[in-house]
Amino acid sequence: MKPNLSLAVVILAAGKGTRLKSKRPKVLHEIGGKPLLAHVIAAASRVVAPEHIYVVVGHQAERVRAAVASTGVQFVEQTEQRGTGHAIQCARQVVAGYPSLLVLSGDVPLIHAETIERMSRFHQAEHAAMTILTARPEDPTGYGRIVRRAPVSPEAASPEVEAIVEQKSLAPGQEKIGEINSGIYAFLSAPLFAHLHELAASNAHGELYLTDMAGILRAAGERVVAIKAENAAEVLGANTIAELVALDATMRAATAQRLMAAGVTIFRPETCVIDAEVEVAPDTVIEPFVQLRGKTRVGSDCLIRSYTVIENCALGTDVLVRQGCVLADSTVADGARIGPFAHLRPGSEIGESVHVGNFVETKQARLGKGAKANHLAYLGDAEIGEGANVGAGVITCNYDGVHKHRTRIGKGVFVGSDSTLVAPITLEDGAYVGAGSCITKDVPAGALAVGRARQITKPGWATARRARREAKDPSP
Ligand code: UD1
Ligand code: CA
Fold it and tell me: Is residue 157 over pLDDT 80?
């Protein structure tokens, strides 16, 4: 879609979100792993360039700005939140130069760019002063309702609107109206700004409602029309935690559908949490209760077993992640086997065909091709060469209480079980470390290092002791 320079988008995001009962501003609550506002900005950015997107901020303005500043949008301050109409009054100065405006709501996050474009084209074709995007959801309760203008003849359905009536102002009979206001509009700037001052706070909340512009513009002889969204789910808002969670489920279901359509098997997708930007290649199987978060990418022919959580990781092809693993900010190469119950912390680089088994924790660790750490190990700030074998219970002592130090384990090294490697330390290629060693000095290539107390064996000692005890106290 080409940017249209005669058009600005205004996103209303200054409200507190009182009904969420949360310290966090409403538009920063997340669905699909991203703040509501970020979703709306993403859709708007496909219609106009970010420098033509104006986000109205107010409640915790700095926090909201900081959360989306990287998108390159502009900000407008509404220091006192006196309603959606007042928000547009605050934006007036900066957007008055644009002939047309699209207004989006920061808490209506599932909107698609295509639907915004469709509304915008309809607005132009209808030569309207105001166009309202509407929908017929299953339950219209809580939304503003659309009072359509009676058609001239019963056959000629009119797109024209008489007014928008907020839930609290519905007259008897109007609560049956099934068509709702999505809070998304197109305006011609000239008539909007000519009449914007006519908004009055004579309503239940004492606010200036942008919705009143429909009636005001109609009364001024301007054309006000409505276009219905094809899919009502796209324009649902989030005023309560329950609504927010429902939108999250809708968004994640759509992501799962997208992946399944592309050849990924997701068993019980309703139990999985998959963020919108996750990519998975065909023939990969995802078991129930898996979470794939952030910018995670998974190659083809992988199996991700239940209760695994993967965040911002890149997995190659034919990777097996067994049950209950936690992987963050790491890479896993083709054919690797992880888990069950493994923990890859940030900066882990798991090489081709590597095995990382149960209760193994890695951090800033690079494991070369075919290396194995199958049981109960901690590998932090470490390089582990190709084909090395790290025994059960091996620990890299990487921290001296002040600084972190590196452990270098060469190719084909064998580290016996329950050894501690006190970093900085190097075990050169092909070295052996005897089980139970505490290694504090570098081990040359091909050498054996054993660093443990010698065993003392006293023949007959236990038998003699038992005999002495029984002589003192013969009772069984
Ligand atoms: C609004 C509409 C309602 C519509 C619904 C759709 C009005 C009066 N009502 O109701 O007809 O059906 O959206 O979801 O507009 N905001 C500001 N400044 C303010 C007040 C609000 O920027 O002073 C922002 C909020 O942050 C929010 C958006 O405007 O993102 C909508 O406000 P909200 O209070 O959620 O309006 P609704 O009651 O949902
Ligand atoms: Ca709302």
Answer: no
